[in-house]
Predict the structure.
Amino acid sequence: MTSTDTPLGTAGGTDRRRWFALAIVMTAAFMDLVDVTIVNIAIPSIQRESGASFSQIQWITAGYALAFAAGLITGGRLGDIHGRKRIFLVGIGGFTLASALCGLAVNPEMLVASRFLQGGMAALMVPQVLSIVHATFPAHERGKVFGLFGAVVGLGAVSGPLLGALLTEWNLFGWEWRSIFLINLPVGIAGLILGSRFITESKAPRALKLDLVGVALVTLGLLMLLYPLIRGRELGWPVWGYVSMAGALVVLAALVAYERRKSARDGSPLVELSLFRVKSFAAGIAVQTVFGVALGVFFLVWTLYMQFGLGWSPLKAGLTGVPFSIAVSVAAGMSVQQLVPRFGRKVLQAGALVMAAGVLLYLWESGHYGLGIAPWQMALPLVVMGTGMGLIVAPLTDAILSEVPREHSGSASGLLNTVQQMGNALGLGLVSVVFFGTIGDRLRPDQVGPAFADAFRNSLGWVAAVLGVIFLLMFALPKRPVQHVEGEQGATERKEPVLVS
């Protein structure tokens, strides 16, 4: 069954297959979110068992991130052209194969190469998730769906380290670190089989062609920007890194100029620049980028603080994050279904302020309790932070995509995921300044804990400041919800309130 961007059930149908399809694509999104963070916990085990060098360990994490970020826009556009179901199935199948290769790697070189492949396959799979939701569900159901998506984001953010700690500690079948990759196999195979049955195909209603020059320019530009950010601290921030990042801006400017000509010539650009004329999309992309910076800083320094500063085990650190994850999930569901229809943009702005309050409370507690702080004492600031994040993640996705034409949903989803990854990478680059920049090069064992705790508090101050910037940027978002009415031929069009200008 094929649909040209006509969602199932929009004419009052009761086709429940779309809910099975939702479960499948959400599981794939969760698998990707977990895989981004699960490796960090297992790094000591990987280094010990495989004999990987420090540089190879860097590439086990950086390779995935680079391939993922560089391929997202192209992956989204391929879904528009060749069908979102088809590209999703290719992506999840390739992701599963790459996970098997990671788990069966016989040396560090094979593991690094497999992680590059895994990131590239994730770039095909992940943009289709929001595209399939956008093309499959009528607008009056999307609020509920994006609430679920926000809950998945919250669970994935913390479940990765916890799951990684459990799998590594349990050492299933003597696999040690390999189980963090092999656990993807049954999930991926099930997603492939069920996805082929329950996901309905959709693509752009008019024929599009893949813009190969655009693919080359966007990939080159993102690699030139992200590579120095990811490797900069390890290499001592060389001059060529700054030159590369400056050159990336030139390449991306050339991309914009080329895409304008391409759009006027044949209407098949890789990046649909007309999307940026949709106010909700343009403003939301800016917020998403800066929000990614805040998350990129916090999650890394938080892990370093607990494991190196406080000396906690990976399992203890992972369990400490459970209140945060629960708070994100609960708040995400409430924000879209109950709060945004009544209060609109104020919900997202309240989320930024609440999250900032949680960060400042955490900063105070860290200083007050010092190195003797206990997990239960962290629960309150983590719940406050998680509540704020939940108020942002689900309605922000809805606000960004709500007015995007369905034929461009793949391109829009790819852009949305790409700027989030760019924000995370910028955050990781900022960590080198705000966290490692305050730690001395040579510390005695008794100096490690206090130094990491001080660096953590310094980083939290920066995170709070970035959240303040996000609050101000949110004034550019549409501010009030309105009701949409029935469209032609009985198709329901945006009956659920969405943020509009």
About this structure: The longest helix spans residues 17-50.
